Amino acid sequence: MATIWEEVKDNIKCELPQKTFSLWINPLTFLEKKDDTLILGCPNKFSLNWITENYADIIEEKLGKRGEGINKLTLKVKAPAKKKTLPGILKESKQLILPNVSRHPQTGRKYLNNEFTFDRFVVGKCNEFAYSAARALAFGKKWPYNHLFMLANTGLGKSHLAHAIGNAILDQNPQARVYYITAEDFVNQMIFALKNNRIEEFKNKFRRSCDVLLLEEVQFLSGKEKTQLELEYTLDALANDHKKIIFTSSLLPKNIPHLKKELSSRLTSGIITTLEMPGFQTRLKILEKKASEQDLSLSEEIIELLAKHLTKDVRQMESALRCLKAKSELLKEKINPELAAEVLKSHISEQETITMGHIRDLVCKYFKVDPVLLQSKSRKKIHAYPRNIYIFLCRTHTQRTVQDIGKTINRNHSTVLYASEVIEHKMKVDGRVKNQVDFLSQKLKEMKNDS
C-alpha cells in the first residue's frame, strides 16, 4: 500500500506547483489501510488542517481513479523522525533553508529571468513612466525614492520590469543581496518557518540579509493577517536601512480585499506607476521586437494586421507569432496576410455569440444557485465561489469590460479583477476547480457552435 501512495503522489505532483507539492503533499507518509480508507500521517496539526481544507479532494480523487477499492482519506498527526543535524550548521548558515530554495541564493540570480532586461522592454505611452521609474531605481545612485509600486493587469510587463531591476542591480554589483519572491511564496516560507521554529531565521533573511526586495503579486496577501503583520515589520526594517523595495500587483492596495490599512500605507509609501494596455503604435513596436526575437521576417502589412486585432496583452502577441511561425514551417507555407488571418482566428473572438446572460444561466444551473444570489452581498462560499467562476468565464469568453461584468453582479472593477485572479490561481493548484472551469468552458463553446 505504501507503493500505491507513492504512485498517487506522483500523479498529484503533475497537477500542483513544485513548491506547493514539496511543502504540503510530499511530507505525508503512509500509515495503514482500513477497508476503503487510506490513512496518512501529517507532520503536525496545522498541516493536517490545511491539507484537509485544500487538498483532501484531489487526493481522494486520485485514489478513486486507481480502482483499488480505496476512495476515502483519513489524516492523522504523525511527526516524521527527526534528522540529526551537525552542531552549528544552523548557526553558521546565513540563509534560511527552505524547500526548493538554494542554500546560497544571496545574489538572487537564480530566481530572475535573464531575458527580462531593460533593453528588451518596449516602451510606449502606456508604460513610459513605469519604465523610467524602474530604470531610475536600478541605476540612479542619487535617486531619492527607494520604493516602487507597479500596477498592471496580467501580461502588460510589470514582471518584466521587476526582473529587469534585479538583473540591472546585479550586473552592477554581483554581490548585492537581491531577493525576488511572489507574495504566495512569502506566505509559504513564513508558514514553514513558523512550523519548524525557525521564524528568527526567516526574519533575518528578509530584514537583515536583504539589499533589494522584489515582491510580486501582492494582491494574494488578501486575508493573510499574520503574514501582513510580519511584512509590515519587514518593510519597516528595510526602509530604515534605506534598502530598495519593488512591489507588483494587479490591484491598488486600497482595493485589495481584507488588506490592513497599515500595510496598504507602507506599500504605497513610494512611487506608484501604472502600465496600461498598449496603444496601436506601441503594439506595432512590440510585434516588430518579438518577431525579430523569433527570427520572423514580417511585412509591414502583416505587422499592422496583427497590431490591429491583438489588443489584449503581450502574451497574446507572443503566442500569435509563435503559431504563425509554426504553421508556416510545418505546412511549408509562405507567411502572407491570408496565413496571418487564419492564425488570428484562434487568438481573437469573432462576433460575440456568448453573452454574460448565457454564462450566468449556465453557472447558476451547474451550481444550483438562484441568479439573484450572484448579485447579493453574501460572502458564503456557496454563493461567492459560483460568482467568481461567473466572473472568470465572462472575462475569458466575452469581450465585455470589467466594469460591464461588475455591473451585472453589483461589484466594482477591482473586485472583478481580484475574483478572476483567484479562480486563475485555484485552477493551478486544485484539479477540481480546473475540471469545473474546463467543463463549463466546453459547454460554452458547444453553445457558441450551435448558435
What is the CA-based Rg, rounded?
24 Å
* Count of folded domains: 4
Secondary-structure arrangement, i.e. CATH architecture of the largest domain:
3-Layer(aba) Sandwich
Structural class based on helices, strands and sheet pairing: alpha/beta
Q: Quick one: overall form?
A: globular
Low-confidence stretches: 83-107
Let me know the number of strands: 8
Mean pLDDT: 84
Main sheet summary = 5 strands, parallel
- Helix content percent band: 40-55%
- For the biggest β-sheet, the strand order reads 5-6-7-4-8
The CATH topology label of the largest domain is Rossmann fold
* Helix segment tally: 21
The named CATH superfamily of the largest domain: P-loop containing nucleotide triphosphate hydrolases
Can you write the helix and strand succession as a string? HHEEHHEHHEHEHHEHEHEHHHHHHHHHH
Indicate the topology.
Elements (H helix, E strand, L loop, with lengths): L1 H12 L4 H8 L3 E6 L2 E6 L2 H10 L1 H10 L6 E6 L11 H4 L35 H12 L7 E5 L6 H15 L5 E5 H13 L3 H10 L3 E5 L8 H16 L3 E6 L11 H7 L3 E4 L5 H14 L6 H10 L4 H17 L6 H9 L10 H12 L3 H4 L6 H17 L4 H7 L4 H17 L1 H20 L1
Parallel strand pairs: 2-3, 4-7, 4-8, 5-6, 6-7
Antiparallel strand pairs: 1-2
Helix pairs in contact: 1-4, 6-7, 8-9, 9-10, 12-13, 12-14, 13-15, 14-15, 16-18, 18-20, 19-20, 20-21
What does this structure look like?
With 451 residues, this protein is α/β, with parallel strands linked by helices. The protein folds into 4 domains: 2-77, GMP Synthetase, Chain A, domain 3 (2-Layer Sandwich), CATH 3.30.300; 97-274, P-loop containing nucleotide triphosphate hydrolases (Rossmann fold, 3-Layer(aba) Sandwich); 280-345, Helicase, Ruva Protein, domain 3, CATH 1.10.8; 356-450, Orthogonal Bundle (Chromosomal Replication Initiator Protein Dnaa, Chain: A), CATH 1.10.1750. The chain is built from 21 helices and 8 strands. It has helices at 2-13, 18-25, 45-54, 56-65, 89-92, 128-139, 158-172, 183-195, 199-208, 225-240, 261-267, 280-293, 300-309, 314-330, 337-345, 356-367, 371-374, 381-397, 402-408, 413-429, 431-450; strands spanning 29-34, 37-42, 72-77, 147-151, 178-182, 212-216, 244-249, 271-274. The strands form 2 sheets. Strands 5-6-7-4-8 form a 5-stranded parallel beta sheet, with helices on both faces. A 3-stranded mixed beta sheet has the order 1-2-3. Strand 1 (29-34) and strand 2 (37-42) form a beta hairpin. Helix 12 crosses helix 14. The protein is globular and about 70 Å long. Residues 83-107 have low confidence and may be disordered.
